[in-house]
């Protein structure tokens, strides 16, 4: 019997175990399907905050999660943090991250604004712009990137926030 064929499955199996996939999902009261009541922008009667969320599979060497919040249904704010980009400090390979206030650059727990939302006029925000479609059913999503101290993206994943 050829020893190469016996060792091949072991090599493939161990390679699969070494690279855990990063995953992110929102925490209660968010469910990833519908934006919770009150979490929309002030123009729509809310006092919205970012959703709290959990991430697993954060790669070794990551020092920050960069989260780009987007309205996938409204092209001008659908990519690259249209609703703002925030940085959350990380330690370890998994974590729970808090909700932080919308429309503000003053954030708790070491969270910081990387790029403010791209809305203008009455939709302008110093940081995160909560969902502000007026309840038209727009799909909100975030792209979560784990970065190292040099700013290199080590892993990324998407996180559904819900419709509003």
Question: How would you describe the overall organization of this protein?
Answer:
The chain contains one helix and eight strands. It is mainly beta. It has a single domain, classed as Phosphatidylethanolamine-binding Protein, CATH 3.90.280.10. The strands form two sheets. A five-stranded antiparallel β-sheet has the order 6-4-3-7-8, with no helix packed on it. Strand 7 and strand 8 (153-163) form a beta hairpin. Residues 1-19 have low confidence and may be disordered. Residues 1-20 form the signal peptide. Keywords: Signal. InterPro entries: PEBP-like_sf.
> Strand percentage, roughly?
25-35%
Q: For the record, give the distance between the C-alpha atoms at the N and C termini, rounded to a whole number.
A: 61 Å
Secondary-structure element order, as H and E? HEEEEEEEE
What is the CATH third-level topology name?
Phosphatidylethanolamine-binding Protein
Strand order of the largest sheet: 6-4-3-7-8
What's the alpha carbon Rg, rounded to whole Å? 18 Å
Residues in helices, as a percent range: under 10%
- Low-confidence parts lasting 5 or more residues at pLDDT below 50? 1-19
**Which structural class best describes the helix and strand composition?**
mainly beta
Largest sheet geometry = 5 strands, antiparallel
Number of domains: 1
Helix count from the secondary structure assignment: 1
Keywords: Signal
Signal peptide: 1-20
InterPro entries: PEBP-like_sf (IPR036610)
Summarize the structure.
The chain has 164 residues and is mainly beta. It is 10% helix and 30% strand.
């Amino acid at each position: 019997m050829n020893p190469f064929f016996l060792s091949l499955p072991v090599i493939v199996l161990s390679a699969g175990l070494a690279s855990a996939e990063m995953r992110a999902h929102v925490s209660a009261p968010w469910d990833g399907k519908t934006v919770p009541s009150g979490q929309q922008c002030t123009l729509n009667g809310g006092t919205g905050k970012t959703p709290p969320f959990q991430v697993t599979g954060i790669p070794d060497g990551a020092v920050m999660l960069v989260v780009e919040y987007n309205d996938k249904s409204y092209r001008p704010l659908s990519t690259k943090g249209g609703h703002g980009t925030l940085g959350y400090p990380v330690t370890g390979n998994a974590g729970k991250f808090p909700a932080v206030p919308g429309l503000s650059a003053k954030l708790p727990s070491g969270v910081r604004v990387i790029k403010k939302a791209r809305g203008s006029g009455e939709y302008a925000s110093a940081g995160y712009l909560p969902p502000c479609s007026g309840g038209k059913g727009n799909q909100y999503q975030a792209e979560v990137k784990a970065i190292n101290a040099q700013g290199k993206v080590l892993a990324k994943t998407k996180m559904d926030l819900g419709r509003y």
